[in-house]
Each structure stands twice: as C-alpha cells, then as structure tokens.
Amino acid sequence: MAATRPGGDATAAHQVAHQAGYQAAAIGRDGIRDRLLAEMDPAVAQSFTDQQVRELERVLAAPAARPVPVDIRITVPFYRRGFFIAVLAGPERRSPARRRKDRAAHALWTFWNLCCFAVVSILSVPTAIGLLHILAEGL
Q1: H/E stretch holding 124
Q2: Which comes out higher in pLDDT, residue 81 or 11?
C-alpha cells in the first residue's frame, strides 16, 4: 500500500513502483523514472510531491542531445583490460556557464592528459617526417 506523499496523492505510476518494491523495469520514459525512484531510499522516493514527480517526468521527456558530426570511439587492447579513445568534434552548442562547469569538472592539465599529449606528440613527429619524405620523393 502506497503512502500519500506530502503535497498530494501519489501518482498511479508512483504507487505501482512503490508497491512493486521500486523494481520497475527500465523501459521508456516511465521505466527510467520508476528506475530512478527504485534506486532511491524508499523514504526519499515517497517524499516526492506530485509536482516534483511531474517535473521529473518533464525533464526525462526532454529531447536527447543532438549527435555531433565526428564521433569516434575505439577500444585499444592493452594488457588484459584495454583502454578507450574517444574523439568528439562539432559546433559548440554549450552555454558559457555550461563550458565553465565542464572545465572545472574535467581539468585539461592532469597527469594522464599530459602523458597522452606526450605520446601523441612523440608519435606525430616521425609520422610527419615520413609523410614529408614521401611527398619530397614524389616531386
């Protein structure tokens, strides 16, 4: 039996998720909403008002981000695990505030980024020299 949340009656979907022990399948927007509620502490999930659940539904219904023109993602085998490389490129669509937030969350000058830059630089020099040599021979 679903408890009534402060600020209004529980929505039917919320009641079903509550009665099912918050184990709703993650299918579609409602499934994602129910899965989010299922992952929360039950007391917190029950505390949502109808307005808060509607706002959660509105945000989940928002269109997904548009794909970027260049989206290269590969996994390189390395020892037993491997690592991934992702290159994304396209027109900048983020707001200045979002860019500042992203810069703060993902610093450019970290140890591993510097290692990656060094490896790419070391590999780029012989490649450039080889290409110049091939071009010079062709002339």
Answers
A1: helix 111-138
A2: 81
| Amino acid symbol at 59 | V
Please identify which residue in the block is written with the tokens 């992952």.
39
- The Cα–Cα gap between 41 and 3 comes to 14
Cβ–Cβ < 8 Å for 84, 74: yes
The predicted pLDDT at position 65 comes to 74
Q: What is the DSSP secondary structure assignment for residue 21, as one 8-state letter?
A: T
Count of beta carbons in the 10 Å neighbourhood of residue 46: 18
Give φ, ψ of 74 to 5 degrees.
Answer: -135, 155
Q: Which two tokens stand for residue 68?
A: 């970027």
- In tens, the pLDDT along 1-58 reads 344 444 444 444 444 444 433 333 333 556 777 888 888 898 988 898 889 888 888 8
Contact, 35 vs 24, CB < 8 A?
A: yes
pTM, full prediction? 0.44
86 CB-near residues (< 8 Å, 6+ apart): 72, 73
